[in-house]
Amino acid sequence: MKVCNMSNNHTPIADRIPALRPIYAGLHDIAETLMRVVCGGILAVHGYPKILNPFGATEMVEGLGFYPGSFWSPALSITEFVVGIMLMIGLFTRPAAVAASVILAVTVYAHWVAFGQGYAGSEKSILWLAMTLFFAVRGSNRQSVDAALGRQF
C-alpha cells in the first residue's frame, strides 16, 4: 500500500510564485497589526457599555459561580474595556492578551455549557479567544507602543 506524503506537496504559494514574496513580506506586519487593532477595538467596544453600568452583570457572573458578583462584574467591565484598548495600541500586549483570553475562555464555557447554547452560542468567543491567544504567544510587532518603548511584554 502506497502512503501519500502530503508534506512535499504543500509548498507555500510564495515559494511557487516568487513574484508574490515581496507582497506577502510587505503586508505581513500590516495584517498582524490590523488583526490586533480589530481584536482590541471590538473588545473595547464590547466592554464600553459594561463600564457605564459596572454592576449590570452581577447576577450573570454569580450564575457562573463567581462570587461576589459585586466584585467580579466591575472587574469584568474594566478588564474588557481597558484590555481592549491595550491590545488595540499594543501596550503590554502579552499580559493584556492573557487577561482577555481568560475572560474569553469563561465566555466559551458560559455559552457552550452554562447557557446550553453549544457551538452556535460560543463560536464568536472561540474565534476571539484564538486571536487573543495568538497575541498572548506572539506579543506585538514593530507597530505598537511596546515597540516604541523598546520592550516586548
From TrEMBL:
Entry keyword Cell membrane: yes
Transmembrane segments: 71-91, 98-119
Family the UniProt entry places it in: Belongs to the DoxX family.
Presence of the UniProt keyword Cell membrane in the record: yes
Cellular compartments annotated: Cell membrane
Native source species: Pseudogemmobacter lacusdianii
Protein name listed in UniProt: DoxX family protein
Membrane disposition: Multi-pass membrane protein
InterPro entries: DoxX, DoxX-like_oxidoreductase
Keyword line: Cell membrane, Membrane, Transmembrane, Transmembrane helix
